[in-house]
Amino acid sequence: MANRTDTDAKSIHGTNPQNLVEKITRNKIYASVYWKKDCFGLSAETLVDKAVELKYVGGMVGEPQKPTEFICLLLKMLQIQPDKEIVIEFIKNDDYKYVRLLGAYYLRLIGKAYDVYTYLEPLYNDFRRVRVAQPDGTFALSHVDEVVDDMLRKDYLFDVALPHIPMRHLLEKAGTLEPRISLLDEDEVEKAIAEAEQEAAAAAEQAAQAQEQLQAAAAGDRPAEYDRR
After folding, report:
1. 7 — phi, psi (to 5°)?
2. Is 172 in contact with 178 (CB distance < 8 Å)?
3. Is the pLDDT of residue 158 over 80?
4. 156 has which bridge partners?
């Protein structure tokens, strides 16, 4: 059947992947025109063609509540379970911000804590504006980094309950993750390295000058007989 999970798909968090989306939401997605017309027959390779057409993110909108194209494609990914490499390519896609967010949201739902933090935290450096569909059918402006922050911090996003993941500091304490260096911290580190290199270069130059002065002074103090030899 068109709504059945791929037979090769693995259980996620102990359940059918599609069950990560609540049944009432799933049924509304199955009944939507976009699902029937545009999602039917999509494979992991062809889904990206639909993803690049996304114009906003969101869950259920309007009255009566209807699914966004974003949440429909999310359910399709849960249904066909694309390879991890494809999901990562979605996340690393710099050209299409909504493709990036779709991949990030999918990984947040199905991924282990280590992968979630590893692949989503770099998106904190993506400050592009995005449109977010609101439940009442209006749109709000946000940014990629803000949406990713919601994925990592909230328990419920785009009408889907997000699986629990341990807080970052607990994973750091356990040695699973290295402490995160923010973009600002990286700038400070680079600045400190540059200053240290400048100081080292200046010290080396002063040492060379001092050595030359010592050699010159030593040459001036030599006896005349020594020079004649």
Report:
1. -65, -25
2. yes
3. yes
4. 161
Dist. CA 108–CA 78, nearest whole Å: 12
CB 151 within 8 A of CB 104: yes
Listed residue (146, 163, 6) closest to 81, CA to CA: 6
Averaged pLDDT of the chain: 85
Tracing tokens 């249904």 back to the chain, one arrives at 79
Give how far Cα 119 sits from Cα of 49, 62, 112, Å.
Answer: 22, 32, 11
**Cis geometry, peptide bond prior to residue 67 (ω within 30 degrees of 0):** no
Q: Crossing angle for the helix pair 23-30 and 69-80, nearest 10 degrees?
A: 100
Flag whether pLDDT at 19 surpasses 80.
yes
Tokens for 139? 């749109």
Helix (H) or strand (E) holding 35: none
